[in-house]
Amino acid sequence: MLALYLRDVKIAMRAGGSALTGLVFYLAVVAVIPFGIGPDLALLARIGPAIIWIGALLSTLIGLERLFKGDFEDGSLDLLLMSDRPLVAVVLSKCMAHWSVNVLPLVVLSPAMGLMLNMTPLAIGAAVLTLLAGSPAMTFIGATGAAIAVSLPRGGLLVPVLVLPLSIPVLIFGVGATYAAVTEPQPFLPPFLILVAITMILAVVGTAASALALRQGGE
Fold it and tell me: What would the pLDDT profile of 6-61 be if each residue is shown by its tens digit?
């Protein structure tokens, strides 16, 4: 599984495109909103966590189509389906490789985006922590959509439609936990633990559903 993870990371880095496109899109979303809101720094600081999370969510959708598409096109997916390795473990490795290349850079870029939105250091730290905990959940949800659409001629158009509604709970608890960290009466730990629980549940349910969709599509 480590070899498969490293292989997917190398392919994604060599192919380029999707990771860089996601970063540019994330930067564009976060950078454009202050121009639309105006010079109200207090308002920017107040809605900054929501902007960062929405930008990360939309940027995560870019590149999901390629999660299994490349293996489907070159025949590697058939070999993975016929191998004696558990397909759930294969899907988990591919999801983590996709997250490392396409989503983790968004998390690393988030502090700079927080400074652009006039967020406090505490709010920036909370946003980064919640993104680290919640962004894998978006990848696992996206893997299910990518697995369903992998064999469809225009599946790339279907993946965001399937993934975006299912990602709303992750967005709600991610933004809620970030706001709770900077709002005194609201405790940070409950929404953050719920966010972690969602990620852990989707690591099981999402990979199993993706494996089942790939198996059904291969048949």
Answer: 887 887 777 555 667 888 889 988 888 888 887 778 888 888 899 999 999 988 88
Res. 176: pLDDT tops 70: yes
Burial of 79 (C-beta count, 10 Å sphere; 0-12/13-18/19+): exposed
Count H helices and E strands in the chain, helices first.
Answer: 11, 0
Alpha-carbon dihedral sign for residues 128, 146, 205, 93:
negative
Task: For residues 32 and 76, give the distance between their C-alpha atoms in angstroms, rounded to a whole number.
Answer: 40
CB of 146 closer than 8 Å to CB of 64 = yes
Task: Name the residue ranges covered by the structural domains of the chain.
Answer: 2-218
Direct distance between the N- and C-terminal alpha carbons of the chain, in angstroms, rounded to an integer: 24
